[in-house]
Each structure stands twice: as structure tokens, then as C-alpha cells.
Amino acid sequence: MEINNRINNGLGTYENAKLEKAERERSKSSESSSSESSSSRDTVNISDEAVLRTDALQTATSTSDVRREKVEAIKAQIANGEYTIDTRKIATNLVRDDMALLAG
Q: Would you say the pTM of this structure is higher than 0.70?
């Protein structure tokens, strides 16, 4: 389902942030050794949360707002009484995703 793909793509951004954090830490350690030998400079530190928020905003703004064909198909299913929602599956996935974010 396309909605699932959007959610998974967005979560991939958070997973990528972990990798980017490790890379930033490596570059900070190499920069600190080189900056100690040179004169002092002004630096700007961006928090991991700010990086995640920026990535989330970029992902949200780059995706399409409405997929008309999907909306019309779901409307037709609802009108015919054929559309069902597995609330247990939704709840399970929400909890799983939240736990993954907390663990990361």
C-alpha cells in the first residue's frame, strides 16, 4: 500500500540519521585534531533533533499531497461497504514504530 511506503520512506530517514550521526562524530574527531593545531575558529553545532526535523520536513515537502485515483478507489469501496480497516494491525505497527524510534 502506498501509505505504508510513505511511512517506511519517512522512517528510513530516521535510520539514515543514525548513520549520519556516526559520520558526523567521526568527522568531529578528525576536525578537532586538526583545529587544535590551527587558530581558534567559531563553530556551529546542530543538534541531532534539528537534523532529524530537517530531514522529515524535506521528506514531507517532496511527497505528493493527494493521489486522486487512490482516494476515489477508497471512496468507492466505502460507498459499497467493502472497505475494512484492520485496527489491530494499525495499532501494532504504530507501537512497533514508536518503540523503534525510542530505541534509536
A: no
Cβ neighbors of 20 (< 8 A, separation 6 or more) are: 51
Q: Residue holding cell 525510542?
A: 102
**Of 7 and 19, more confident:** 19
Question: How is 1-52 classified by DSSP, letter by letter?
Answer: -HHHHHHHHHHHHHHHHHHHHHHHHHHHHHHHHHHHHS---------HHHHH
Instruction: Indicate left, alpha or beta for 45 from its phi (over 0: left) and psi (-120 to 50: alpha).
Output: beta
Q: Are 97 and 6 in contact (CB under 8 A)?
A: no
